[in-house]
Amino acid sequence: MRSVVMLLCCACLFAGAAAAGEPAASSSPGILVTPSWLAAHLEDPHLVVLHVASLRADYDAGHVPGARFLWPTRLAENTPEQTSVMPPVEAMVRALRDLGVNNDSRIVICQTLGDVASAARMYLTLDRLGIGDRTSILDGGFEAWKAEGRPVSTARAAARRGRFVAHLKDDVVVDLNTVAAEYRNPGVRLVDGRPASYFNAPNHSFVRGGHIPGAKSLPSSALFDSTDRYVSLDSLKRCFAAAGVQSGDRLIAYCQIGRSACPVYVAAKMLGYEVRFYDGSFEEWSRHRELPVEGKTTN
Question: 12 in helix, strand or coil?
Fold first, then answer.
């Protein structure tokens, strides 16, 4: 594992401009794009806009012209063993091909109804599948698009089946054994993206309450504003610093079930941190009584 912070690449600099509300000027804009960037690239034949919504009715009610409906469960499913986990790679590849995704696609993820976590979760998954460098999030989602008076469509977009092939990245997701082996290592910093009430309070419907020892609390809601746009890079830096994250830390983001910490992963990537995501999160950790927890707990 690398022991240094990843340097920001040019694409991440463009992402910072988008986070600050400035339009990106590149066909490879970085993690965030603005409505103006998306509007300027709607005719790009490689562009694939994925409208993330829990119900198709929300997609049918209106979306960016040409956007395709992505039911998030296709890339983050609930199983009898665990909540919100990545399906088998073959199933995720099939879902993306159904949406017309190719390896040369430029993907923009658009959440609706303020669901920043779902958009971030889809970004993380595509990063795991090896196409994160060609994937962006529409900052502010569909609501930001409408607020600027952009055109809205209610037509279901048809897509020719894609030929996407996964090239898995091993530095995106970690499992229980990895976290258990590394959480006390110097330079490894666990970042808990749950609300503070979960970080210290008992239970919350799970076996044990509290948090993984040594973790720092950074509620993901601090990373975006009332319009569901990510705050500026300077503000993100202050959020991470206030949580006790230091320059050079290698981060592992987690939450309760693998959703609310996804914006932490996105923000850490924008800041250039080496960050991985613990998909099992506290739901899994708390059920292993041989593993310690900190905070107010009931056993």
Answer: helix
pLDDT at residue 104 is higher than 70: yes
Q: With 50 as the cut, is the pLDDT of residue 16 above it?
A: no
> In this predicted model, what pLDDT tens digit does every residue of 18-56 receive, in sequence order?
333 333 333 568 999 999 999 999 999 999 999 999 999
Cα-Cα-Cα-Cα dihedral sign, residues 186, 15, 93, 115: positive
CATH superfamily, domain at 10-147: Rhodanese-like domain (3.40.250.10)
- Give the pLDDT confidence score for residue 18 in this predicted structure: 36
Which among 247, 196, 246, 250 is positioned nearest to 220, based on CA atoms?
Answer: 196
CATH number of 173-285: 3.40.250.10
The DSSP H or E segment spanning 110 is strand 106-111
Percent of the chain with pLDDT over 70: 88
Complete DSSP assignment for 245-286: --TTPEEEEE-SSSSTTHHHHHHHHHHT-EEEEESSHHHHHT
Please name every residue paired with 130 in a beta bridge, in sequence order, or none if there are none: none
Phi, psi of 118 (to 5 degrees): -65, -45
